[in-house]
Amino acid sequence: MAMKNLSEVTSFHLSDYYGMEDMKPVYFCMFLIIYLTIVAENIALIMVVYREKTLHEPMYLLLCNLAVNGLYGSTALLPAVLSKLLSHSYEISLPLCQTQIYAIHTFAITEFTILAAMSYDRYVAICYPLPYHAIMSQRLVKLIVFTWLYPMLAFLIVFILTLQLRFCERTIEKVYCVNYLLVKLACTDTSIMNIVGLLSVVLYMIPQLIMIFYSYAHILRICLLSFSKSRLKALRTCTPHLLAIINYSIGCFFEIAQSRFNVSHLPYETKLFLSLYFLIFPSILNPAIYGLIRSSVCTRLKKTLQRFSGQMHRDVIGVICVYMCIRI
């Protein structure tokens, strides 16, 4: 009988969708607009950096990787959400659930790793301004490869253990699959998995945190000792990076708080917002935040959009540019 139950669980119910039943069209339109905005913003940003040779600098190339990761994470979530809102079933098959878990978790680790790499770039730019281009030209490709390869391999350790589990329960209390909730549905004792999961958090976060704190500790020390115009100019480029880190950290805090504390007393909309923040808001806000780096980026963005959109009305282009660049 036990073996029969093990073999039967090949799909799961995503129970949080039931809270959208009364307002499905509203939620569908909202998530569709969010997804299209994320795609438009990040592709436009990548396109501008690709076309403008003056932007072929380490900071902007790392920014392109952040945009690519934003597309990766939002695509792992939002098309599936839109599909479920159009259907009458809130079930997800085990293979699709596992695929979504791998995509969402690697997005989260990659986002943090790219932000750590960007902090290293700012450290070299401010603390070693003269040899900056020589140092980064030698290390940039390795840095970019590392920011993608490390998260993919690091999460694989935990993910392989998850793939070996068999499940007796079917309800996941979210609109998407996450590893810790899937593990809770396993038939067998998952004590070892829980220990590995906690240890893996150290592997996913501590190296990046060390890099960020180390970089900004040295940046602060240099800026306190010297107030040259070149260093102050470079320091201003740290502002959007710090905003991106704070924005992503808020999302991670919301996700961790939801998993560790009882939030059943909160309204459905609040719980949904908290669970989706780290997947949506970094991807939708990063292009806007980094529009603050340099006004010329915004000007180039406007010209590039006008060049590629012969039939697009100028007012629409203006709205996109104002949103992404705060002020052109």
Automatic annotation (TrEMBL):
Transmembrane annotation, as ranges: 25-48, 60-82, 102-120, 140-161, 192-217, 238-257, 272-293
MF annotations from Gene Ontology: G protein-coupled receptor activity; odorant binding; olfactory receptor activity
Gene Ontology, cellular component aspect: plasma membrane
Record bears the keyword Transmembrane: yes
Record key words, sorted: Cell membrane, Disulfide bond, G-protein coupled receptor, Glycoprotein, Membrane, Olfaction, Receptor, Sensory transduction, Transducer, Transmembrane, Transmembrane helix
Subcellular location: Cell membrane
Membrane topology field: Multi-pass membrane protein
A Pfam entry, by short name: 7tm_4
PROSITE patterns xref list: G_PROTEIN_RECEP_F1_1, G_PROTEIN_RECEP_F1_2
Domain G-protein coupled receptors family 1 profile: 41-290
Primary location group: membrane
SUPFAM superfamilies referenced in this protein's UniProt entry, alphabetically: Family A G protein-coupled receptor-like (SSF81321)
UniProt family annotation: Belongs to the G-protein coupled receptor 1 family.
PANTHER family membership: G_PROTEIN_RECEP_F1_2 DOMAIN-CONTAINING PROTEIN, OLFACTORY RECEPTOR
Protein name as catalogued: Olfactory receptor
